[in-house]
Write a structure and sequence with these properties.
The chain is an alpha/beta fold. It has a single domain, classed as Aldolase class I (TIM Barrel, Alpha-Beta Barrel). Helix 1 packs parallel to helix 2 and helix 11 runs parallel beside helix 12. The chain is globular, with a radius of gyration of 17 Å. The protein binds 1,3-dihydroxyacetonephosphate. The site of 1,3-dihydroxyacetonephosphate has 14 residues, from strand 8.
């Protein structure tokens, strides 16, 4: 079963609006000589989403929101809704990032509501999950990620699940330079895949992408993407530099063409 790899850059709270647009143009230029056969997504700050979507129009780059509120509108100061993301040019939304869970109190149930909101507005959710270092050391990784996945995907039909991308991001590997080894990551990806098979059937589960995130860089993308259940990457730091981000995209693409 081949799944089209997805390389996504999560810019977090980095880059002003003009910087975001200039960066997008630079990536487009750097990729121009290569027909792009992987999916490429960038998630700028909400302030830059619209301008980046405009700069990316007609190019292989698609745009994601870094967060979304479950409601369509209302008294939710500082929040942004799925129809707003859609109207601004997004077609993906990142939800459940560990930084949102740890710093802004996003619970598994809240992530589930956000996932529903994205699907209801034809946005493709990228749902992040992962264990802390403490959970890994206590041998609780499988239990933790499995419960995050099952709550996030509760009440989805198989057709809805097919539009979801999962991103496994071990928290101890985010921004630390520590990467899960390809084998460590594959072990968890295989577990998540099996859970998706049990919930949505083999046909759907085998089309769903499971990304790895946590200190992905040009030097480790190849060994990660070679794993049978790693279908791309969600990248923080290395997605902020044109040469690193495009290197990762082109390496993933090369592997895709060979396989
Ligand atoms: P780093 O690639 O900087 O470790 O960040 C990963 C991440 O959190 C992507 O969402």
């Amino acid at each position: 079963m081949t799944r089209q790899p997805l390389i996504a850059g999560n810019w977090k709270m980095n880059k002003t609006l003009p910087e975001s647009v200039a960066f997008t143009r630079d990536v487009v230029t750097a990729l121009a000589a290569h027909p792009i056969t992987v999916d490429v997504v960038v998630a700028p700050t909400l302030l830059a989403v619209h301008a980046v979507a405009q700069a990316a129009e007609g190019t292989p780059i698609q745009v994601a929101g870094q967060n979304v509120h479950p409601s369509e509108s209302g008294a939710f100061t500082g929040e942004v809704s799925a129809p707003m993301l859609k109207a601004a040019g997004c077609n993906y939304g990142i939800i459940g990032h560990s930084e949102r869970r740890q710093m802004f109190g996003d619970t598994d149930e809240f992530v589930q509501q956000k996932l529903r909101a994205l699907l209801n507005h034809s946005l493709k959710p990228i749902v992040c999950l992962g264990e802390t270092l403490e959970e890994r050391e206590k041998n609780q990784t499988k239990e933790r990620v499995s419960s995050q996945l099952s709550i996030a995907c509760q009440n989805l039909t198989a057709e809805e699940a097919a539009r979801v991308t999962v991103a496994y991001e071990p928290i101890w590997a985010i921004g630390t330079g520590l990467t899960a080894s390809p084998e460590q990551a594959q072990e968890i990806h295989a577990l998540l895949r099996q859970q998706l098979v049990e919930s949505f059937g083999k046909n759907v589960a085998n089309t769903m992408r499971i990304l790895y995130g946590g200190s992905v860089k040009p030097s480790n993308i190849e060994s990660l993407i070679q794993q049978p259940d790693i279908d791309g990457a969600l990248i923080g730091g290395a997605s902020l530099k044109v040469d690193l981000f495009t290197d990762i995209i082109l390496t993933a693409q090369q592997f895709n063409e060979q396989s």
